[in-house]
Amino acid sequence: MTPIVNGLEEQFDGRVAVHRFNASEEPGIQLQSAYEVRGHPSFVVVDRLGQVQERYFGPQEEEVLQAAMSSVADS
To answer: Of 20, 25, 46, 63, whose CB is crowded by the most CB atoms within 10 A?
Structure first.
């Protein structure tokens, strides 16, 4: 997943913030609870107002994550 996320981070640079957290360390532990995610990899797409738009669990296709990021980048 790292190459996909790296590419999307570069593609959306300046339009979407990408944050990565370790699920076994803070603040990742708290964020898992706050965003209701379990397991890894997990992806949460949050809009500019802090509202969760999408949650993904497990490996995802690049196009799926790209569409979700586009939806918040253009809002």
So the answer is: 46
